[in-house]
Amino acid sequence: MMTNFSNHNPPDFVQFVQFHFNMNNDALLDFKSKIASKSFKKGDKIVKRGRICDKIFFLESGLVKTLFTSDSREYIMRFFSETNIFSVLDSFIEQKPSNYEIVALEHTVVSYISYKDLQLLCVRYHEIETFYRKLLSTAVIDMMTRIGRSLEETGIVAYNKFLKNQGYLLQRISLADLASYLGITQVSLSRIRGKN
């Protein structure tokens, strides 16, 4: 999701929700009372594989990646930077152990709301239930788009789309992580970058 906030004054979780979902004051104050925050060092696991993801996070500052590992190979699904909401949604929704991890790529500060608190707020406020439903819908659409692209695109097309849509992250992520995200080898990535 994108905001119209300037980079000099990025929103916090509550401002982000209010901007996009226009909650009434009671709902917003109750939502705000359930928000907590935490900081992570580079390399810290925000969500660990095999543990239940019981939070929805808002990235105040820093950068994270969502990944899964198979046969000792890492597959990166998404990068999230400031003012993005993220979670491992299947684990969050079903309250089952996660197959994915979320790892801090930089010193990272997040705000979050717990599964339990969000469920209680959804029962209490229609606006918060709507926020949650729209959040889930957006996440499903984003993931289906990502899967469709990964099946259809060549490495060079995927790289050029990354530059267009997330090029601002290029200086903040390693080439190994970028290659994993694009689904190509580092050698192929170096070749593509050389041609550009």
Mean pLDDT: 89
Which strand order does the major sheet show?
1-8-3-6
DSSP E strands, number: 8
Examine the secondary-structure arrangement and name the CATH architecture of the largest domain. Sandwich
How many structural domains are formed by the residues?
A: 2
Number of distinct helices: 8
User: What helical percentage do the residues reach?
Assistant: 40-55%
Beta-sheet strand percentage? 15-25%
Folded structure, characterized:
The chain is α+β, with helices and mostly antiparallel strands and 196 residues long. It folds into 2 domains: 13-152, Jelly Rolls (Sandwich), CATH 2.60.120; 154-196, no CATH class. The protein is built from 8 helices and 8 strands, in the order H-H-E-E-E-E-E-E-H-E-E-H-H-H-H-H. The strands form 2 sheets. The protein has a 4-stranded antiparallel sheet. The longest helix is centred in the C-terminal third of the chain and has 27 residues, at 126-152. The radius of gyration is 17 Å and the shape is elongated. The two termini are 29 Å apart. 26% of the residues are buried.
Brief descriptors of the model:
single chain, four-stranded antiparallel sheet, 2 domains, 196 residues, alpha+beta, disordered N terminus, Jelly Rolls
